[in-house]
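Thread: FGD2 protein, structure

OP (GT): Posting the sequence first so everyone is looking at the same thing. Length is 314 residues per the record. Can we get the structure tokens written out before standup tomorrow? I want them in the notebook alongside the other entries.
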Amino acid sequence: IQEPEEKKIALELLETEQAYVSRLHLLDQIFYTELMKEAKNGKTVPEEVVKTIFSNISSIYQFHAKFFLPELQKRMEDWSCNPRIGDVIQKLAPFLKMYGEYVKNFDKAVELITFWSEKSPPFQELIADIQKRKVCANLTLQHHMLEPVQRIPRYELLLKDYVRKLPPESPDRDDAEKALEMIFMVAKHSNAAIAEMERLQNLWAVYQRLGLEDDIVDPSNELIKEGPIQKISTRNNSTSEKYLFLFNNMLLYCVPKVIQVGAEFQVHLRIDVDGMKVRELNDTQFPHTFLVSGKQRTLELQARSDEEMNAWIK
């Protein structure tokens, strides 16, 4: 049987994404990491130079490797019972604003590579050494660095094609059209949205610390406050160390992980801000305590000082 056209395009998206993630891995985990190591040893160029050359490639790599690629893979495995990618791309689109920084920095990065290659022979040698490896496929660092610059236009083309080939009654039509519109906007605004980009980068970093729990990753969330807190257990009159993340729509009540592999916290409880009440408790035994009650649960929490308590309540 002939595969439907839209599935072929979705598979092409997945395959190019896999290739793209290995290119990002090469840039971040090999070039950047090794050049940084030598810079730290004071053998090649100042650390700042390496940081400037690679801009925010690490965030871009983490985002694609840990989030977008796995989401796409999951989708293509379920294609027979759930033939859609529009919703996943809508989740991805806002984070593509991270590219604004990388794209804006690209010309400067290439100039820096040229300048320091002339000025520091060990720097040039290290780059040449990495370029000789099989993983580089006989291409230069500059060539590999161009790949993220070309990635968003590539999404746009693939998605345009996908929307064109979708049958009119496809369940993915609305989502896919909306996703295309979003990607189009990102491509158009990649230079304007600096503040927004920083917010999204910070938000992404928070999601990583929380272990990327799927229903939490939402680009429209805003982190309002985070910090350690003591949880009071009335049963045995004791407190235990917890950690809070307050977003505009939810409070995440977390436990710091002892062994920090990957995520830093485990989300124990999620309380909606909608319908939440907060008030100070005048408890003589536990000073600076306040009560948070929401639809899901009520918590008695102790801050480290009155200022901290008031800041949380506010």
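GT: Both are above now. Quick notes for whoever picks this up: The chain has two domains: 5-189, 223-313. The beta strands are 223-233, 238-247, 250-256, 265-272, 277-281, 289-293, 298-302.
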